[in-house]
Specification:
Elements: H1 14-22, E1 32-34, E2 37-40, E3 43-47, H2 60-73, H3 87-100, E4 104-108, H4 111-123, E5 127-131, H5 136-147, E6 151-155, H6 160-168, E7 176-181, H7 193-202, E8 206-210, H8 235-239, E9 247-252, E10 262-266, H9 268-277, H10 279-282, H11 289-327, E11 339-343, H12 350-359, E12 362-363, E13 365-367, E14 378-382, H13 389-405
Parallel strand pairs: 3-12, 5-6, 5-7, 7-8, 8-9
Antiparallel strand pairs: 1-2, 2-3, 4-10, 9-10, 11-14, 13-14
Length: about 425
């Protein structure tokens, strides 16, 4: 009979396990929500760990619109998509086609479902090239692809020359897929997408981009935009003015749109192939009706006032980045997008610094080693359009306290 000793935590994640077991800002139970304030036990905190970038989780119009969908469709269409789909799916996919300017789109519950199904299907017995700092779910999907016969290589993050050398090498049989994040989930920075798109086209490969943190936040630019994030929130490909020629975009509604739903944007012929091959389409459970509703209602809100929300989000983020610059604190964020990673001068101070933030009413995302490299151990701050100016100002004051007491990493001279 298995015992607890059979499930001992590996040493390399011991610090993560300890934080989850002991730290108030890890594995927390939120007892109450009031705007972007949350209550954990008796402590109220300003929430800077949420990825609800546009604040649509709190939007009165969206909340009011959900019951009509439930009345018409019930709570849950208990079919796998390969059996039957409510027409709501097709409505979302059609709206995505218009918003993104793509040939077609396919919706599934989460990006994890999409990566695990789509990447092995694209690679087949060919090659996956994975950016070393791509999201962990992409690396996990590469393991599945490798088990099914694909060759997997990892290239230095953002290094197109390294990726090209691997593509030209003898151990890179076709079909080939280059996998990377759009807006990176820790640094907040996008890749040089035009360079990687050109590389994919030159070598007859797919460029597969996970833009979970860019979709809804950044979009097409005209030079007369409400903010540097661009317009419409139609993701990283349009932000760079790129085409979808040999580019497959995946993203989710769970960040900017506050809804359980994800999609892959792709040619129609490839969509039809994936409908037969991807297990989560053929066999997997469906998305709840409320999530399909909030996706559709969110897309409508985005059409009417999304650019206004993105401008608010930009200004909130700028307050933080400008303050950090004034303090001389290093951050990897050079994009101005609303994910800001802060590394402590001493990684061993993470527990105490996190407790100070919690005690002072600020909730952030802890980033211990090995979730990030040891020299980057610290925490991540996410801004939303629903954070108030007062909450951001309180955050800035508390960050000064953390800097005085523990110290943040400084830029290299």
């Amino acid at each position: 009979m298995p015992t607890s000793s059979d499930y001992a935590v590996p040493g390399q994640v011991a610090e993560v396990a300890r934080l989850i077991a002991e730290h108030p800002m890890a594995d927390a139970v939120v007892d109450q929500v009031d705007g972007r304030m949350i209550r954990v036990g008796s402590q109220w905190l300003a929430d800077f760990a949420s990825c609800n970038y546009l604040g649509l989780d709190l939007d009165p119009e969206i909340l009011a619109g959900v019951p009509d969908f439930l009345a018409r469709w019930g709570t849950h269409p208990s079919w796998a998509r390969g059996i039957a789909s409510p027409a709501l799916y097709e409505r979302v996919e059609a709206e995505l086609v218009e918003l993104l300017g793509v040939e077609d789109a396919l919706c599934l519950p989460t990006l994890t479902h999409i990566h695990n199904g789509v990447l092995p299907a694209l690679a087949g017995q060919g090659t996956l090239l994975v950016d070393a700092r791509a999201h962990q779910t992409i690396h996990d999907a590469a393991v599945i692809a490798q088990a099914r016969g694909a060759t997997v290589h990892r290239f230095r993050s953002g290094d197109a020359r390294h990726a090209e050398r691997l593509l030209r090498g003898p151990a890179a049989p076709p079909p080939r897929v280059i996998c990377m994040d759009g807006v990176n989930s820790m640094t907040g920075n996008p890749p040089d997408l035009p360079v990687f798109a050109a590389l994919a086209r030159e070598h007859d490969a797919w460029l597969y981009v996970d833009d979970a943190h860019g979709f809804g936040v950044i979009g097409e630019r005209s030079g007369y935009d409400p903010s540097p994030y661009g317009r419409r929130g139609n993701a990283v490909v349009r932000f760079f003015g790129e085409s979808y020629d040999q580019v497959v975009l995946s993203a989710g509604f769970s960040k900017a749109y506050s809804s359980l739903l994800a999609f892959v944007a792709l040619p129609t012929a490839l969509k039809q192939y994936l409908k037969v091959i991807v297990p989560s389409y053929v066999y997997g459970g469906p998305v709840p009706v409320a999530s399909l509703a909030t996706a559709l209602l969110g897309l409508e809100a985005n059409r009417r006032r999304g650019d206004e929300l993105r401008a608010q989000l930009y200004h909130r983020t700028r307050l933080l980045l400008d303050h950090l610059d004034k303090l001389g604190v290093a951050t990897s964020n050079v994009s101005g997008f609303p994910l800001v990673e802060l590394a402590l001068a001493n990684a061993g101070d993470l527990d105490a610094a996190g407790r100070h933030l919690f005690d002072r009413g600020v909730y952030v995302t802890l980033a211990p080693y090995p979730v990030v490299p040891r020299k980057e151990a610290g925490f991540r701050i996410q801004l939303t359009a629903a954070n108030t100016t007062e909450q951001v100002e309180h955050l800035l004051a508390v960050l000064e306290e953390v800097d005085d007491r523990f110290g943040f990493r400084r830029p290299h001279p």
